[in-house]
Amino acid sequence: MAGFSVSLIATKIEGEPCVWRADTAHGYAHEHQAWNGRIIDLHEKAGDLTRVYEKCLRKAVENCEKFLAYYERASREGKIK
């Protein structure tokens, strides 16, 4: 695998924002948390992108409602740029 992108898009919110994303843009695997602006390095080892991708996909599925709630709260509090 050369790279990946996993995104959670809030289709029921106007503008359909990306709430959470993990990808290999910029040359390394990392996670974006839209509710707080954090970018987290996923520290993949060479050749482990498939494993990192599968872990990110599981994280997206298992946490989608929680991530959406974080985003909605931050939006209500005016913390989303």
Describe this structure in words.
By secondary structure, the chain is of the alpha+beta class. The chain has one domain. It is 35% helix and 23% strand. It has a four-stranded antiparallel beta sheet with strand order 1-2-3-4. Strand 3 and strand 4 form a beta hairpin. The longest helix is centred in the C-terminal third of the chain and has 28 residues, at 49-76. The chain is elongated, with a radius of gyration of 13 Å.
Number of helical elements: 1
Largest sheet: 4 strands, antiparallel
Quickly give the structural class.
alpha+beta
The tally of domains stands at 1
From the N-terminal CA to the C-terminal CA, the straight-line distance is: 33 Å
Q: State the strand order across the main sheet.
A: 1-2-3-4
SSE diagram, text form:
Elements (H helix, E strand, L loop, with lengths): L4 E5 L8 E6 L6 E4 L4 E4 L7 H28 L5
Antiparallel strand pairs: 1-2, 2-3, 3-4
